[in-house]
Amino acid sequence: MAASELQHEQALKKFLDARPELCVELDNLNPLLAQAKGETLEQFRDERLHEAFEAEAERLGLFAWELTLKLTAATEEDYQAQRLEVHKEVAEMAGMDWLEYCELYGLEE
After folding, report:
1. pLDDT at 4
2. What is the pLDDT of residues 87-104, one digit of tens each?
């Protein structure tokens, strides 16, 4: 079960709440930059927020969906269980052997 849209929105909120400086930066984006990209200021802001979220996930050595789970899981155990479940789904969709997949991504079951 991949992270839901609701989980992702909750994770973005937690992420932003923990970074007041990013919130200020996002609230003060140049509207001309959004216009130049053919986007509304809200779309442009959302894109910058998602970029910051993905950059933080990368910095932590995670996929963005893993950071979403990490920020929304009730406990570390819940996070690990959900993370493994999603990885299993990905391996299955890719038609990969689970042990081979674990080795490729450094997972321990």
Report:
1. 86
2. 999 999 999 999 999 999
Q: What size, in residues, is the chain?
A: 109
- What is the tens place of the pLDDT at every residue in 4-40? 899 999 999 999 999 999 999 999 999 999 999 999 9
Write the Ramachandran bin of 15: left for phi over 0, alpha for psi from -120 to 50, otherwise beta. Answer: alpha
**How far is Cα 69 from Cα 76, in angstroms, rounded to an integer?**
10
Of 59, 11, 15, residue with least CA distance to 2: 11
Specify whether the CB–CB gap between 33 and 44 falls below 8 A. Answer: yes
Which pair of structure tokens corresponds to residue 24? 């200020």
Query: What's the N-to-C CA distance of the chain in angstroms?
Result: 17
CA–CA separation, 30 vs 44, rounded Å?
10
Residue 99 has which token pair?
Answer: 């042990």
C-beta separation of 67 from 57 below 8 A: yes
pLDDT attached to residue 108: 84
Scanning the structure block, which residue is given the tokens 């920020």?
71
